[in-house]
Each structure stands twice: as C-alpha cells, then as structure tokens.
From TrEMBL:
GO MF terms held by the record: mRNA binding
Phylogenetic lineage: Eukaryota, Viridiplantae, Streptophyta, Embryophyta, Tracheophyta
Protein name: Pentacotripeptide-repeat region of PRORP domain-containing protein
Pfam families (UniProt xref): PPR, PPR_3
Superkingdom of source: Eukaryota
Keywords attached to this entry: Repeat
Keyword Nucleus: no
Family: Belongs to the PPR family. P subfamily.
Start-end of each PPR repeat: 43-77, 78-112
Originating species: Populus trichocarpa
Signal peptide from the UniProt entry: none
C-alpha cells in the first residue's frame, strides 16, 4: 500500500499523459483518459490539458462544450485556460469571440497576462478595430500587474497604431522592413507583435519578410523572437518552416531561454508527430543548458 502511494500520479503527471495520449492515439483517447480519472484528479491542470488538446486540433464544438463544463466546475483557473480559447478562435478566424472570452475572464476576476493582452490586441488589429486596440493599451497600462516589459510593449505598439502601420499594414511592410535595420533590442517586441498579427491574418508572406529582415539586423536574437516565429508557423501549419527556424536557432548565439515557453513549443511540435524536429529542438535545449520540466517522449 505504501509503495502504491509513493507512485501515485500527480496532477502534472495526468496532464502530461493527456498530452501524450493526444499525440499518440488522438484526442478521443485523451478524452477517455480524462473521463476515467477519479474526481480528485480532475483539476485545473488536467482540465486545461484536455482543453489544449481540443484547441490544438481546432475542434471548436468540443472545445466550447468543455469550456462550459470547466466554468461549471468551480475550480480556480488562471489566464492560461482563457488564452487557450482565444488562441483557438484566432486560429479559425472567429475574431469576434476573442473579446467575449476576455469579458468572461474579467467577470471571473481572473488576472490577464501579457499573452491574454497580446491575443486580444491581435484580434482587434486583425479586424482593423484600431480604436479598440488603443483602449486595450490604455487598460493594460492601468493593470496592477504591469511591469517594464509590459510598458515597453504598450509604448511601441502605441507608436505603430499612431503611425498607422496597423491600419495600412499591407502597404507599410516595406517601410517596416527598412526600419528594422536600425531597431534596438527593446523594440523587437513590436516586431514579435507584428508577426503574431500577420499570423492571425494568415499572411505567411508578410511573416517571412519580417523574419528575413530581422535576421539581417545587427541585434542579437532572443528566445522570445524564436518562440514567436515558431508559434506563428505552427499555428498556420507551415511545418517545413518550423524545422528551418529550429535549425536557425541552433546556429544562433542566443543564450537566454524561457523554459516554460520552450517546453510548450516542444510539446506542440511533438504532438504534431514531427519527431525529428522535436529531437533537434530537444538537443538545442540540452546544448544550451536549458532543462525543460517535461520532455515529451
């Protein structure tokens, strides 16, 4: 009995198994695994893991039904759950539903994170609702969780909105590319935002152009830049480019790594069955002394 208790699976273990089930056997198997869990194991982590499986597979009806079920569970949820739904709606072009999710997040008094704001802003920018973008930036600046990174994000995106870059995105790309040659490291978060914006619009050619120009600058790439471009290509389903970006990352001198973000990327790549790319990315993390808390086998 003691031995059994010593090996009792944690919430994180169950969530990892749901991810693995999705990758190996599909969403239906992950769903059955979740349904078979004891009530005590149906926690924030396991609910979010299955929601992620639905969202990644773009199973809108299942995701929405499960989202309602989650809200009725009375469990404490963070912004991550809401971000999953926002990402889903962005990926299928249902931009109007992104703001609805934000309103529900606020109603539940859940603190948004920078990814929540980024998705919200991106959805409004993609819909060319620039006034709404400005209002979100104002709200973001008043958020109790605001920090220096947020303020840099707000300031630079405001500059782009004021300059009309988002309104005239199609005609301004050439100017953006030229300007990027002179940018500083702190300003790069704006270009990450533009990459995410174009991903929401499905504009791969614009993403390619911005990324190419960023690589031509004298500034050192950060893990955030690589995470952003990889996430965008994954969202659009351009898997060949995912492998190319991982190779570029391996050749870079980047030493800073966001372990949490890299961990999510590794799981996403693995879940798509891209074994070789996942292994290359895993080796990159090991070579740079980055030890993910969970590696998908």
């Amino acid at each position: 009995m003691v031995a059994h208790e010593e090996f009792e699976l944690s919430d994180t273990d169950h969530a990892s198994r749901i991810d693995l089930m999705t990758k190996v056997f599909g969403v239906d198997a992950a769903e059955r695994y979740f349904d078979g869990l004891p009530l005590a194991a149906k926690t924030t982590e396991t609910y979010t893991a299955l929601l992620h499986s639905y969202a990644a597979a773009k199973l809108i009806e299942k995701a929405e039904e499960f989202y309602k079920r989650i809200k009725g569970s009375n469990l404490p949820f963070t912004a991550l759950m809401y971000n999953e739904m926002m990402t889903l709606y962005m990926s299928v072009g249902q931009l109007e539903k992104v703001s609805q999710v934000v309103e529900e997040l606020k109603h539940q008094k859940v603190a948004p994170d920078i990814f929540t704001y980024n998705l919200w802003i991106s959805s409004c920018a993609a819909a060319l609702n620039i006034d709404k973008v400005r209002r979100i930036l104002d709200e973001m600046s008043q958020d109790s969780g605001v920090n220096d990174d947020w303020m840099r994000y707000i300031k630079i995106v405001n500059i782009y909105v004021t300059a009309g870059h988002l309104v005239n995105a199609e005609s301004s790309t050439a100017a953006v590319v030229e300007a990027e040659k002179k940018i500083t490291q702190r300003e790069w978060i704006t270009y990450d935002f533009l990459v995410i914006l174009y991903a929401g619009l499905g504009k791969k050619d614009k993403i390619d152009q911005i990324w190419k120009s960023l690589r031509m600058t004298n500034q050192k790439m950060t893990s955030r830049n690589f995470v952003c471009i990889l996430s965008s290509y994954l969202m659009l389903g351009h898997l060949k480019e995912v492998g190319e970006i991982v190779d570029q990352w391996k050749q870079s001198t980047t030493t800073d790594f966001d372990i949490s973000a890299c961990n999510r990327l590794l799981d996403a790549i693995s879940c798509l069955g891209l074994t070789e790319i996942a292994n290359n990315f895993h080796m990159l993390l090991i070579e740079r002394n980055c030890d993910p808390k969970h590696i998908s086998e």
